[in-house]
Specification:
Structural class: alpha/beta
Mean pLDDT: 94
Radius of gyration: 19 Å
Largest sheet: 6 strands, parallel
CATH topology of the largest domain: inorganic pyrophosphatase (n-terminal core)
Number of strands: 12
Order of helices and strands: EHEHEEEEHHHHHEEHEEHEEH
Low-confidence stretches: none
Helix content: 40-55%
Number of domains: 2
Length: 309
């Protein structure tokens, strides 16, 4: 029999990579044959953790055509699958987003719960069943929880994330300052890295006939980046908008050390929408929000606003 493929979005972030690796381990330890595989290029943060701890990369795939059953972790809509994963083959979905498309996966059981990271839901399967987790998976899953909760400062953070992290670190044994090391590693946006990161970490949505694109950066030194390179950021956003024929595009810049969001948007329509939706005020092209909010939280708020009335 072919193994179950455990995967995530194409070009996955750390949460997706960690969830796929750990979930496949859980299935294998509980009587099912499974393999972790990723399609596309993992985000730099995922590469950093894999390389930093010499953890083998998941199987690299061009598509999921060779598998009959697929488990999706940290994914629950069609946008990130890019035609490379047949939604009819999905037998299970593990995700933590309020905005999803479960009807597009007719054969899937789904666990959608609003915790900080999909990795938390995977960790809980080990915890609740008494299944031992490997050090490699514990490190990946813990790092994903730290990343997705912004080191437990983000408003997405729940007690379940904290409890899972404490349990995982009994095995992972990460240094208490690892969060800063990891965040600093993904804060290097020198040269072409800025454009590459923005173009690799954005998500597109069709909301009530509007094509919406949200780019997100999570770094230390966000204000300095804006002071030095705001025109370049606006140019990159405009390029994406024209190429993809978008109605709305903006950057959610998360400043990890200061605990602030900087929202960067050009055009009165987008700025007015964000002011109304997120209760912020723009000064030119930038608005500052003191309470951290992530893209996954912004999407349902935008959906509610754009579909109201």
């Amino acid at each position: 029999m072919k193994p179950i493929l455990v995967t995530c979005y194409v070009d996955p972030d750390l949460d997706g990579v960690a969830g796929a690796v750990a979930c496949s381990e859980f299935l294998n330890k509980n009587g099912k044959q499974a393999v972790a595989g990723i399609i596309g290029e993992p985000h730099d943060e995922a590469k950093y953790v894999l390389d930093r701890f010499a953890i083998p990369y998941p199987l690299r795939l061009q598509n999921a055509d060779g598998y009959d059953e697929i488990v999706l972790v940290d994914a629950s809509d069609l946008n990130g699958l890019e035609g490379k994963i047949d939604p009819k083959k999905i037998v299970e979905i593990i995700d933590h987003r309020k905005f999803h498309e479960l009807k597009a996966f007719p054969n899937a059981q789904a666990q959608i719960e609003l915790v900080g990271a999909a990795a938390t839901l995977v960790a809980e399967r080990f915890m609740q069943s008494g299944t031992a987790i490997s050090k490699e998976s514990a490190i990946l899953v813990l790092a994903a929880i730290i990343s997705n909760t912004l080191n437990f400062k983000g408003t997405v953070t729940t007690d379940r994330d904290r409890d899972a992290a404490a349990w995982l670190n009994e095995t992972a044994q990460l240094d208490k300052n690892f969060w800063k090391e990891m965040f600093e590693a993904k804060s290097d946006l020198s040269g072409q890295k800025l454009a590459e990161r923005i173009k690799s970490d954005y998500a597109s949505f069709d909301i009530n006939g509007k094509k919406v694109n949200i780019a997100q950066l999570e770094i230390i030194g966000g204000k300095k980046l804006l002071d030095e390179r705001k025109p370049e950021i606006l140019e990159i956003l405009d390029q994406i908008k024209r190429q993809s024929v978008l109605d709305i595009i903006f950057l959610n810049l998360i400043e990890l050390e200061e605990g602030k969001n900087y929202l960067v948007a050009e055009g009165p329509e987008t700025r007015q929408l964000l002011e109304k939706t997120l209760d912020v005020r723009f000064d030119g092209d930038v608005a500052v929000r003191d309470e951290l909010i992530m893209r996954k939280q912004i999407v349902p708020l935008l959906k509610a606003e754009l579909t109201a009335g």
